Amino acid sequence: MAGVRALVRALVEDLDAARAHDPAARSRLEVALAYPGVHALWAHRAAHRLWRNPALRLPARLLSQLARATTGIEIHPGARLGRRLFIDHGMGVVIGETTVVGDDVMLYHGVTLGGRSLNRGKRHPTLGDRVTVGAGAKVLGPVWVGDDAQIGANAVVVKDVPAGAVAVGIPARIRVPNAPVTERSRTEDPSELIEYII
């Protein structure tokens, strides 16, 4: 009975996270029925539970591929996803096997949390808590994205991003709020930090 209550709490938490991040979400029922990001997340939670048992890895992969076919969101069952993750719109999101995502993270459509190596082991990113990744951004390799960081739309991140920083561009340039002003940063347009965040 305690397990059922915990499951219901987790499902409601996912619904409320979607409503908190999306002003267009009018009710828990609407989110539960019409939000592919939530559907993909729920399928992943079941697939990840299967994945932890080596004998059930094939069913885990099949479930993840079914979720991909129905939602347009591909999450490897080995990925570890935190609480209250919200995937907005979601189409084209890819999350690799060794990815770790913290709590209260928001991903927009077209995000890739992918690898750059064919080696086994940790080859996908780790995102801290309260990270926002803009539409079309690619975070590649075993990089660390610190708590409260923001990745701009279409950025390509291939190195660590400190906590609270903003990463924009291809390859991504890292901007740290309240960092000392240098001659180069004084001549750059500060509005570029805002325009790429979605």
Automatic annotation (TrEMBL):
GO terms for biological process: cysteine biosynthetic process from serine. It comes from the Bacteria. It holds the Pfam family Hexapep. It catalyses: L-serine + acetyl-CoA = O-acetyl-L-serine + CoA. Its EC number is 2.3.1.30. Keywords: Acyltransferase, Amino-acid biosynthesis, Cysteine biosynthesis, Repeat, Transferase. InterPro entries: Hexapep, Hexapep_transf_CS, LbH_SAT, Ser_AcTrfase_N_sf, Ser_O-AcTrfase, Serine_acetyltransferase, Trimer_LpxA-like_sf. GO terms for cellular component: cytoplasm. GO terms for molecular function: serine O-acetyltransferase activity. Pathway: Amino-acid biosynthesis; L-cysteine biosynthesis; L-cysteine from L-serine: step 1/2. PANTHER family: SERINE ACETYLTRANSFERASE. Belongs to the transferase hexapeptide repeat family. This is Serine acetyltransferase. It comes from Promicromonospora citrea.
